[in-house]
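User: I've been trying to design a sequence by hand for this structure and keep getting stuck. Would you show me what you'd pick, starting by listing the structure so we're on the same page?

Assistant: Good idea, let's start from the same input. This is the structure you sent:
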């Protein structure tokens, strides 16, 4: 890739897109808002400059198509999302869209046509910030955008269907966004890692093996509230100490298993007071793993740990499953093609798990998927204005993508 033109385009464009925001003092761009629509138009303009035919589908995804050696060939799909969380970082999603446009731009400038088409997609909604349901853009493409989603409302009471009409979309035509699997060869997405592994390994890129599945629980511990001064330590049924012991058990069990993370992110002492032994505690559990059987064994082990804590401390646990999603495996053949591209560019082809959800989760139902993570700075902070990446890492990722595209071989099914 010509340097530094293509790369500085990526960084400049990421900066420019921060001006498309609902909030004047921070980056917030949620699904179907005026700033979201304007950002989509701008992205379409850049796609068009890079030699692509641009369309907006019936859920608001912006898609640029770069034809292959003849028209109407099946396409390799690449891209990411252009919506954000509130008070977002500017690279999450945007980088994957702009690196893909840069790669196609390079092909176009060299007049290179490949034995397949390339479609670059800017997914309209991945974060689910406005309507609380994630992956609406990629669900549209995969044909899994259910009509019931149209009834969701935002905090101001605006229904998704009404927001679509305001935007210029027809909610009755959502299903038209679904693409036919036979017209697609696979999906590759570049995305900032949103974590510290590549920093730790001193590598600019890494190849994703799977997107973790998740189990989330809400847990209530019932003990016995009593006077903090009068009840001796050995006669207490302290619900907070039981929850603390449960949290430590989740840490120990997650450490014991491969590629598994477990988090207690919320914990509340109900009616807690300085001079009262905690009688009731509620906490959340989030367990993630790239392998569904391992995740299930972690859930089982957690429940066993809870029951031994119940016996030991004379408390009771009520555990409710609030969310469950299976892991999505990346295509082995695309992983190995990405590894070859990474090696050709002179980097060690490190493989890693994605603990966060991505558009590839929804697309896994539709076409073979793969992802390349690119290193971010600031310890891997993301979903925050301190999110960052270097220009040289942005270039490295785009160069690997271009090399991957030039050597792309359709995965055999
Ligand atoms: Zn993202």
């Amino acid at each position: 890739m010509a340097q530094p033109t293509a790369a500085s385009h990526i960084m400049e464009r990421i900066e420019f897109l921060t001006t498309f925001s609902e909030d004047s003092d921070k980056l917030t761009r949620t699904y179907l808002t005026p700033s979201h629509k304007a950002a989509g138009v701008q992205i379409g303009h850049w796609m068009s400059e890079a030699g692509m035919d641009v369309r907006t589908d019936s859920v608001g995804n912006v898609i640029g198509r770069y034809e292959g050696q003849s028209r109407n060939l099946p396409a390799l799909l690449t891209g990411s999302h252009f919506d954000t969380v509130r008070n977002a970082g500017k690279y999450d999603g945007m980088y994957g869209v702009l690196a893909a446009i840069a790669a196609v731009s390079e092909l176009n400038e060299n007049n290179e046509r490949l034995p397949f088409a390339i479609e670059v997609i800017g997914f309209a909604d991945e974060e689910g910030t406005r309507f609380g349901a994630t992956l609406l853009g990629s669900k549209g493409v995969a044909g899994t955008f259910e009509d019931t989603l149209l009834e969701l409302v935002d905090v101001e009471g605006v229904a998704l269907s009404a927001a679509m009409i305001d935007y210029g979309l027809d909610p009755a035509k959502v299903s038209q966004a679904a693409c036919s699997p036979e017209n697609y060869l696979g999906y590759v997405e570049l995305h900032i890692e949103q974590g510290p592994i590549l920093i730790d390994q001193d590598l600019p890129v890494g190849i994703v093996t799977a997107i973790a599945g998740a189990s989330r629980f809400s847990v209530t511990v019932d003990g016995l509230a009593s006077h903090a001064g009068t009840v001796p330590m050995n006669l207490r049924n302290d619900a907070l100490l039981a929850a603390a012991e449960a949290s430590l058990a989740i840490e120990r069990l997650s450490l014991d298993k491969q590629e598994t993370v477990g988090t207690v992110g919320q914990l509340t002492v109900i009616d807690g007071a300085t001079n009262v032994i905690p009688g009731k505690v509620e906490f959340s559990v989030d367990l993630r793993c790239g392998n569904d059987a391992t995740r299930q064994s972690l859930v089982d082990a957690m429940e066993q740990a809870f029951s031994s804590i119940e016996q030991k401390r004379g408390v009771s646990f009520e555990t409710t499953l609030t969310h469950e999603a299976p892991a999505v495996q990346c295509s082995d053949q695309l992983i190995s093609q990405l590894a070859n591209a990474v090696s050709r560019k002179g980097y060690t082809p490190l493989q890693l798990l994605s603990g966060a959800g991505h558009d590839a989760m929804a697309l896994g139902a539709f076409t073979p998927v793969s992802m390349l993570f690119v290193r971010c700075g600031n310890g891997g902070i993301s979903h925050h204005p301190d999110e960052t990446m270097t220009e040289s890492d942005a270039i490295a990722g785009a160069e690997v993508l271009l090399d991957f595209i030039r050597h792309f071989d359709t995965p055999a099914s």
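That's my pick for every position. To get oriented when you compare it with your attempt: The pocket of zinc ion is lined by residues 81, 92-93, 126, 191 (CB under 6 Å). The CA atoms of residues 20 and 379 lie 26 Å apart.
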